[in-house]
Specification:
278 residues, mainly beta, five-stranded antiparallel sheet, 6% helix, binds calcium ion
Length: 278
């Protein structure tokens, strides 16, 4: 497995690097997608070039993105066009310095026609290059939804939280870049951060719920009727539960107000619940 995975990464990296040439195609952000704004070498990054070649449509629109565009702080733009077997099954790109080299990496869900989704990490310096990805799920039309990037265990390195198959398996996983590879460092079943067919992917928030100096992940349980706070420090555990009268739906809004943090969580009824996190 290890060798096969390593070989795949190398091959894919080569292919994708080769595909990043200048293009005259539209660079407009994908409809219903979000442009990421960076403070390091990347100014902005977004998904573009809608395609219906991967007929899963888990995010409610009958397209996915075929390309990724990165605008650097110096004004240069790079575009990466995926090969026909792949799409970006995502409406967000996330910028984070996963390897602590002072430059942001790009974190995005990439799906294969035959193997379903993986979480991919791209480098953008003079070009866009795939540097790591989680193993593809292995079956078409199986998806994962990222849940947040933060130092969840207080070791100074970032972890990426994601839910594998949020409509089926509902497994929360934490991954970290170690020696250029993504390694899974923790997982637990019983979580979901997406409703099938919904455009909303941000059913999660990052906050130090128990005030121990290490941030925790706030995320719904498997049927989205309880909101849970999960801590990886000093051990993996559930630290708080908020019960909801109906299913949780819609992007969470996290705000600081008068030195207090509040989380606005929408129920599927449309009612907004305001949680005071202190
Ligand atoms: Ca970096
Ligand atoms: Ca960490
Ligand atoms: Ca904490």
């Amino acid at each position: 497995m290890g060798m096969r995975f390593t070989g795949l990464v190398s091959f894919l990296g080569l292919f994708l690097a080769f595909a990043t040439t200048a293009h005259a195609q539209s660079l407009e952000p994908l409809e219903h997608s979000h442009v990421a704004v960076g403070g390091k070498q990347i100014a902005r990054a977004w998904l573009t070039n809608p395609t219906d070649r991967y007929r899963h449509f888990v995010l409610g629109d009958e397209y996915e993105a075929g390309s990724l565009v990165v605008e650097m702080q110096n004004g240069e733009r790079h575009q990466l066009d995926l090969p026909e077997n792949l799409v970006f099954e995502d409406r967000h790109v996330r910028l984070a310095d996963l390897d602590k080299d002072g430059k942001d990496e790009i974190v995005v869900v990439m799906s294969d026609q035959k193997q379903g989704a993986a979480l991919a990490v791209f480098e953008a310096i003079n070009d866009i290059t795939l540097i790591a990805h989680t193993p593809f799920i292995g079956t078409p039309n199986r998806w994962l939804n990222p849940a947040g990037i933060a130092d969840f265990d207080g070791d100074g390195r970032l972890e990426i939280a994601l839910v594998q198959m949020p409509h089926l398996v509902k497994r929360l996983e934490f991954w970290r870049m170690i020696d250029g590879q993504l390694a899974r460092v923790a997982f637990a079943d019983g979580f979901s951060n997406h409703r099938l067919g919904s455009r909303f992917q941000k059913l999660s928030a990052i906050h130090d719920v128990d005030h121990d100096g290490v941030v925790d992940l706030i995320i719904p349980d498997a049927d989205r009727t309880n909101l849970l706070a999960i801590s990886l420090y000093p051990e993996n555990r559930l630290i708080r539960t908020w019960e909801f009268p109906t299913k949780i739906d819609g992007d969470f809004v996290y705000r600081e107000r008068n030195n207090r943090h509040v989380l606005r969580v929408r129920a599927i009824s449309g009612k907004i619940h305001v949680i005071d996190l202190h």
